[in-house]
Amino acid sequence: MTHRRTAILHGGFKPVNGEQKDNTADGNPAPAILYTNGAGANYQNCVVRNNKLVAAANIGQKWANNGGLVSNAVRLIRVDVSNFFAGSGPLPVEIERIFGKSAPDDPVDQVFHYGWPAVATNANGDIVVGSVRTRETIFPEQRASVLFAGDSALRPSVSIRRGLDMAVDGHYHMAGAAADPVTNAVYLAQEYPVSGNRRVHITKMLGTNRPDVIPLSLTAPSTLARGATYSASLTVMNQGDAAMPAFKARLHLSTDDTISAFDASLASFSIRSVAPGETAVVPVSIAIPRTTAAGPYYIGARLDIETSALEHSETNNANPFLRAGRGNIAATVQ
Amino acid sequence: MTKRLFTELKKSVLSLIAVTLLWCLVSSVADSTVGRAQLVAVTTPKHDFSSGAVVGGNPLDTNVAVSSTHVCITTRAGFKCFTKYGNPVSPGTASCDANGFPIRPVAFAAGALLAREFFSRSCLFVPPDTDAGSTKDGRIVFGSAYKRFFMVFQNRIDRDRPARLLIAVSKSEDPRDGWWTYIDEVGGNSNSLDYQFLGVNSSILVVSNKMKLMDANNAAIQKWTDHTIYGVAELTQGSASYVKKIWPAYNTAAVCNGCAEEPPFGPYSPENPPRRRMSPPVSSWPRPAFTRVRPATFSGFTATATSTRRCSVGEAAR
Questions:
Q1: Which DSSP letter does residue A7 get?
Q2: What's the whole-model pTM score?
Q3: Closest listed residue to residue A313, CA positions, set B66, B79, B140
Q4: B69 touches chain A (CB under 8 A)
Q5: What are the φ/ψ torsions at residue A2 (nearest 5 degrees)?
Q6: N or C terminus of chain B with fewer C-beta within 10 Å?
Q7: Which residues of B touch A174 (CB under 8 A)?
Q8: Distances in Å between the alpha carbon of A159 and those of A100, A106, A327, B35, B67?
Q9: More confident residue, B258 or A117
């Protein structure tokens, strides 16, 4: 018995470098997009999930309307590896798609170069491929393609960043893709040039956007008297990618640094809706019960106690951090 | 009345047949050729953002990993983490300066960090980047079983051997909570490595390296792939020692006549197929069930009980 199994694919040519629009009048051609450079030659990006191996690679391809010339393309394959160790012979290739001449939404009769793919699959088996598209009349462009589980054809690809003038050199080398562990989103990361520097464009395909509120910080007096009322200030942040609707929250007094619903309530209040990425400061009045025993305590918040929205994480609505106090503050009741 | 009903029914059936034929026609076109017009909706991005300033060389060779709450990217020699909205976050608190000497703990800025600085400021001794590029090829994955990011860089120069892997494991799925950091030598004094890639499941972190056997002139005379396998349970807990397995044993592939992948190295054809290394029996491959419990042994692998150099960024783990 052996694990030497192969998947039989159609033939292909070696990757070739791509062309891009020339942004200068110096008479020199624009630097090529190096689909064949160094470690990136035949670079392959793959992932195994639910017994399906999905891979994407640079290949050279001859298209019917390209005068016999080879342009660069992306080959996407899905191979069933569920019987990899027990079986023998070629592995079944379930999907093989080559895109580069014209993705479904490309202009007719124009030959594009596609390359530097990154691929990931979500729990449904939907495949997302990110790649770079170039042609002599355009600057490089990042695009994303989706093949839904059960579909036989790629959805028309979508531009996720265009006009990337690779004026210094045509290096891309590789890109990244990763599936979200909770939603069906797939994230793509691809570099792009800005004023001689490089940055990374991160794109979320598929899945659902959700809010994610956390109690970022809390201020309150460190010494508290039983039966007295104090002003506290709670800062909440929505670190998710969707708006958080108005929600209910509560401050608690706990004998340890882990706030729970069983801890004594100091205040219940409402918080307005919070936009994605927004931080909101909420003034809160807290009353220390007369029956509280003197001693050291922690004050902390629990957010969205009535579950106003489905969030990326429900566990960080209280005790959001590992650091001392877990995001809650120490106070002494006298 | 009956005749009218029959006429309506006939119309409906004919319409259904026409729609079915059209659907089949469209389906066959869509299925037969990539590049034809298709009657399907464009799938647009749900959210996107720019990394802002990053560090780590050119090209960036970026990789990405995602937890339920955060997104982290590696660049060639650095990394940066974000909320899912796209705001950069700090990877925790440093306890050493850039040379590895203890300082009063100070939070890393919420921004891009060079890998060497990150590992050094976690108090690991990381050999300096004498050629300004020896700490590089960052890769990152997210392990769903333990909800941790696993990030690996190489630290090597072919003339200064052995090569090292720099491994960081987040202490939660929120990179602000800090990271366990490790430095591990891979191979012996005659080996170097390059182009490592990662995979993780509930039991093991596999780092596949392109290994090189070097001669006295620091030239690679043999190349092959090895797989360095670490127990995830120890890495996620910041254990002072961890299980490490290696397959194949160092240099056995290099001296395995006819078994090495290189040379020659492509282009492959039916007359020149890729030559593959001999494999261990299937039963010896680590294929643990999806469980948080690490198998007690991995048979068939070269086992190395590793004395670890382990440090930390941020607070103690939960």
A1: B
A2: 0.85
A3: B66
A4: yes
A5: -145, 160
A6: N
A7: 59, 61-63
A8: 14, 11, 40, 16, 25
A9: A117
